[in-house]
Amino acid sequence: MTALKIVWSTPAKKQFDDLHKRAIAAGRLDDFLAAHAEVVRILGDLEKATEKSDPLYSAKKPGGMVRHLVHRFLSVTFHLYPDESVVCIARYVPVPSTWPF
């Protein structure tokens, strides 16, 4: 297991915060937190992050790859830099976009 450091872009962090508030308002916080914990577990491990996500394109920064993960109702786009052991979450949205309503 190769551990990865997870960092958030500012827009993705706002998307997470907004979705967290929506889950609270709808009484679905437990579902949201469980799904989020699984995403963190997947993205925190290089082998799982590459196994469970799809490559989209090379990142602008050399050595990086932009990848996409769908887990339960969460769609996460992230930049993976294996040489630096870093994942940067770029987009964090629900599928469907109306979740949990």
Layout of helices and strands:
Layout: E1 5-8, H1 10-25, H2 29-43, H3 46-52, E2 54-58, E3 65-71, E4 74-81, E5 86-94
Parallel strand pairs: 1-5
Antiparallel strand pairs: 2-3, 3-4, 4-5
Query: How large is the share of residues in beta strands?
Result: 25-35%
The low-confidence parts are: none
- Label the overall shape: elongated
For the biggest sheet, the summary is: 5 strands, mixed
Helix content: 25-40%
Number of strands: 5
Give me the side-by-side strand order of the main sheet.
Answer: 1-5-4-3-2
Number of helices: 3
The overall pLDDT, averaged over residues, is 96
Distance between the termini: 37 Å
Rg over CA atoms, rounded to whole Å, is 13 Å
Helix-strand sequence: EHHHEEEE
Would you tell me the structural class of the helices and strands? Answer: alpha+beta
Note the main attributes of this structure.
alpha+beta; elongated; five-stranded mixed β-sheet; 3 helices; 101 residues
Please explain how this structure is put together.
- The termini are far apart.
- By secondary structure, the protein is of the alpha+beta class.
- Helix 1 runs antiparallel to helix 2.
- The protein has three helices and five strands; from the N terminus they run E-H-H-H-E-E-E-E.
- The radius of gyration is 13 Å and the shape is elongated.
